[in-house]
Model the fold of this input.
Amino acid sequence: MIKNPFKLEKLKIRVYKDGKRTGKGEDTFEVMFNPESYSLQYGNVYQKKQGLNTSGREAKYTLSKPEELSLKLILDDTGVADDGGFGFAGASLVGNLLGTRDVDKQVDRFLKLTTFMDGKIHEPKYLRIEWGNLTFDCRLQSVNVKYTLFNRSGKPIRAELDTVFIEDIKDSKRIAQEKKSSPDLTHTRTIKAGDKLPVMAQEIYGESAYYIQLARANNLNNFRKLKTGTTINLPPIEK
Done:
């Protein structure tokens, strides 16, 4: 199917019941007005420990934060989006008479799809934001709803939603992107306090269940009690 080159593509928030995000989702929230801009935030976390009577410290890397996407969405029931030549004032009157885009209902629908816990999965839904070259798998982190325009009876007819979406990426995809030590070659790792074999297997091989092969390869009788300072081999594992 050939897309109409003159059609304005609207930003869409697709809603899914799980992190696989197959197909086009079970529902879609399409914005009325595309945002004027959006921002992506990246960040790293470093250890904050510093010795007494010292003037500085080494910035030891701890982790990279997931990306955050911030954008402002406008919900409107003034009729300006349906301006048929009336101008803003005329469109506002038409919009109020028709009541086609009740702002309260729009806000409720947005919150239901993105924010509130879904009773079937016991958590908020999984999201994918699509607009132009942007495809962002995420969950909603926060939203601030600001009502900015009201009709004569005090009913809101415009609202601004300042939203922050946090990146949501499956472990298998994250590991592939990180390109850490390849599981195709045998290498070693020194056990640190708190290390757990299933977690190490997940990080290296992309599947925690491989801890059994890892324990067998290192002749570990009790994989739950790893001795700090011990060096273990991380061999290639046939999947």
Q: What stands out?
A: The longest strand covers residues 134-150. The chain has two domains: 12-50+58-169, 175-234. The two ends are 39 Å apart (CA to CA). The first helix runs from residue 87 to 98.
